[in-house]
Amino acid sequence: MKHQFTHLAHQRDTYVIKAGTDxxxxxxxxxxxxxxxxxxxxxxxxxxxxxILVSSGAIGTGGSLLPADVAEAMxxxxxxxxxxGQNELMRLWTKYFAxxxxxxxxxxxxxxxxxxxxxxENMRRTFRQYYEVEDAWxxxxxxxxxxxxxxxxxxxQNDNDRIAGKIAIIKKAKHLVILSEIDGLYTGDPHDASSxxxxxxxxxxxxxxxxxxxxxxxxxxxxxxxxxxxxxEEAALAGVLVHIGNSRTRNAIHRLxSGAIGTxxxx
Length: 267
What we know:
With 267 residues, the protein is of the alpha/beta class. The chain has helices at residues 21-24, 32-46, 58-64, 68-73, 78-98, 117-137, 160-170, 225-237, 252-258; strands at 14-19, 25-26, 29-30, 50-55, 103-109, 141-147, 175-180, 185-186, 197-198, 200-202, 241-246, 263-266.
């Protein structure tokens, strides 16, 4: 399905979408159904705004390319799996966005790239260059960002929740959507019937940490809700509306943006 894009130079609002490994994969493998649906939803947003996608999933994608016994034996070689999977991950996103007339650009960053004003300005400049290219070309581009695992030593340190939050801040994004396997922030264990969803968090005024088991990570990713919540609060305090929810919910991105599902952090 081809989308109609307004003149690119007038698209000023920026939406940052972060898709976690568990948001994209089923049984450790990228889900065509989920990725196709998310690409369609982002293409709809791209008709009226800029979109930056922060996509995890390279390590899981790399492992899915290997025979099961090899993948199991090599599961700790995360840097190599990330490098192997990144190319396939980009191929899949390129395929799904191409169906909507959108081109993909790749960016690999590290968290320390945001620590200095020079690093932050370098990143802003690169995004401006993408916009200049697409305005001259007349074709829409979605930059797809991932943590640069190739140069890390030991455990993977770059976390895409934090990276997405920092990109949203430096780009003064209108919205940040964090997609995961969870429905949002709960008052207790999400699997406990007595736990209730917290639909809205007033950043800096609501003690959301009381509901979180610190350090509990997602099944296949690198961060848990403590990481997501911290990134969300930091971005919300900078003026970004942040929405956290489940990628598997039908029309998830648009329903999160409307507040119909998930948890929204606001200032």
